[in-house]
Write a structure and sequence with these properties.
Among the domains are: 66-133; 139-172. The chain is 61% helix and 8% strand. It is built from six helices and four strands; from the N terminus they run E-E-E-E-H-H-H-H-H-H. It has helices at 39-71, 75-88, 92-109, 114-133, 144-161, 163-172; strands at residues 9-11, 18-20, 24-26, 34-38. A two-stranded antiparallel ribbon has the order 1-2. It has a two-stranded antiparallel ribbon with strand order 3-4. A hairpin with a 6-residue loop joins strand 1 and strand 2. Helix 5 packs across helix 6 (163-172). The N and C termini lie far apart (102 Å).
C-alpha cells in the first residue's frame, strides 16, 4: 500500500484560480503564513505599481522643469535646462514624447487653456535657445555619411543665399551656365 501525498491548494483572491500553496509567497521569512494572492498576480500588481510610480516621478520632474522654464528668461539657462532634461529623460526622442504627452493631456482637459498656451510658449522659448546656442557637430566625430550630408546641406544653403558664387565657381571649372527659362506654369 502506497501513501499518496496531496499538495495543499489555495484560491488566489485576485484571479480566483485554485493553485498549489507553493505558488503563494510567504508573508515573512521563516513562517508558514502565505500571501492571499498568487505569485503571478502579485508580480503583475507590482509591475503596474512600479510603472505608476515611475510615471508619477516623470510627471513631477516634467512639472518642475516646466516651472523652471517658465521662470527663466536667460536663453543660456534655458539651453542648459533643456540639455539636462533631455539627458534625464533618456534622450531627445523620449523628452519630445513626454512633452507631446503633456500637451495632449492638457488639450484633452481644456483645449485652448492657459496651460496649453504655456506649453507652446515654452516650446518657442526652447526653440529660440536651441537656435542661438546650438553648437555644430564636431566633424571628427561624424560618420562619412553624416559628413557628406552636412556638406551638401551647407553647399545648398550657400548657393541659395549667394547664387553668384555658384555661377563664378561653375565658370572657373569651365562649365557653361545658362539661366533657367521660365515656363508658362511659373
Amino acid at each position: 500500500m502506497t501513501a499518496t501525498i496531496t499538495e495543499e491548494r489555495r484560491v488566489c483572491e485576485q484571479c480566483f484560480e485554485s493553485k498549489p500553496l507553493s505558488e503563494f509567497r510567504c508573508k515573512k521569512r521563516g513562517t508558514s503564513l502565505r500571501a492571499r494572492e498568487c505569485r503571478t498576480c502579485h508580480n503583475e500588481t507590482e509591475r503596474l505599481r512600479q510603472a505608476e510610480k515611475r510615471a508619477k516621478a516623470t510627471d513631477l520632474a516634467f512639472a518642475q522643469f516646466h516651472a523652471q522654464l517658465k521662470r527663466t528668461r536667460d536663453e543660456k539657462r534655458v539651453a542648459i535646462l533643456v540639455a539636462v532634461m533631455v539627458e534625464s529623460f533618456g534622450g531627445l526622442h523620449e523628452f519630445v514624447a513626454a512633452w507631446i504627452g503633456h500637451i495632449d493631456q492638457a488639450m484633452e482637459k481644456s483645449p485652448g487653456s492657459k496651460k496649453v498656451l504655456d506649453f507652446f510658449q515654452a516650446i518657442t522659448q526652447m526653440s529660440d535657445a536651441a537656435h542661438k546656442y546650438h553648437k555644430p557637430p564636431d566633424p571628427a566625430e561624424m560618420t562619412t555619411e553624416n559628413l557628406t550630408f552636412a556638406l551638401r546641406q551647407q553647399l545648398r544653403d550657400l548657393v541659395r543665399d549667394e547664387p553668384e558664387l555658384a555661377v563664378a565657381a561653375a565658370r572657373e571649372l569651365g562649365w557653361e551656365v545658362r539661366p533657367s527659362v521660365p515656363t508658362a506654369s511659373d
